[in-house]
Amino acid sequence: MLVSRRLAALEGQIGARLFHRTTRSLSLTTEGEAFVPHAAALIETRDAALESVSPRRIGLSGTLKITAPNVIGHAVVVPLISELIADNPSLHVDLTLSDGVIDLASTGLDIAIRVAPLKPSDMIATKLADNPYVVCAAPSYIARLGQPATTADLVGHPCIKLHAMNSWPFRRGEEIDRVRIEGPFSTNTVDSVRAACLAGVGIAMMTYWDVREQLERGDLKRIELEDAIPHELGIWAVFPTRRLMPSRVKVLIEALRASLASPADSNGHCGPTRLPD
Q1: How far is the CA of 9 from the CAs of 1, 4, 15, 52, in angstroms?
Q2: DSSP-derived secondary structure letter, 36
Q3: Residue 84 sits in the same domain as residue 201
Q4: CATH number, domain at 42?
Q5: Is this model's pTM higher than 0.90 or not?
């Protein structure tokens, strides 16, 4: 077979076996696993070169592999993907929604959308928008139990806890102060924290984009404390490499920036805004 001959020639040129081959299975050797990222980079280089000079190539093509948090994935990424696919029939998209951190290098992802207090120097990333934490509660809860004025007052209120977040981060000047909170309900997803907050179970801390629509409609009310402000996060696009980034990734980034450029909410507070790289 042509593929077998070319693989044998490549192994001869490298001086190492890339695959374990039997009559029933084919698997990468240690050398093969080390070679795969370099082979992928060569393919990307070829595709980018063809794309830059070919007049016949119209629109985006190839497979765009993305991971994003659940809320932002549903609210922002999926609608954008629908538009990109409609405008680019040769484009395929593989989207993984997860609130955990997925390793880009080992999974072959083109881009990861992450909500974190990253700095550009932490990894190969570009900031898409601000996404500060918001302390909020349902109007029914505030009518029943009032609202805290300071971080110390949070002790007297039932707070809804996200697993692995038993304290809430606030900024006092240049310092980050983590305030321990208690409450009758804890859960493992942002969706269920928001649902419990809407139901009036207690006060919650979520990021702006987790509750943007609810704040705009008045279903939730932002609680501003006198002595501290919630810690500020960002929405970041993270990539395995900046070198020869495919056009499909560049187009997605710009589309995300445009979508995340939000006007002020109904209470007059500004939501995330586009920042320079």
Answers
A1: 12, 9, 10, 30
A2: H
A3: no
A4: 1.10.10.10
A5: no
Of 107, 140, 77, 110, residue with least CA distance to 245 = 110
Domain of 18, in residue numbers: 2-53
pLDDT tens-digit readout, 11-64? 788 888 877 777 677 777 888 777 777 776 666 666 666 555 554 455 788 889
Q: Which of 183, 193, 187 minimizes the C-alpha distance to 214?
A: 193
Give the strands of the sheet with 204-207, arranged side by side: 204-207, 133-137, 221-222
Cα separations in angstroms, 269 against 24, 46, 119, 157, 215? 62, 47, 24, 24, 10
With respect to residue 271, please indicate whether it lies within any of the assigned structural domains.
Answer: no
Same domain assignment for residues 143 and 195: yes
Q: What is the number of other CB atoms lying within 10 angstroms of the CB of residue 271?
A: 20
Strands 167-172 and 234-238, by their bridges, are unpaired
- How far apart (Å, rounded) are the C-alpha atoms in residues 275 and 260? 11
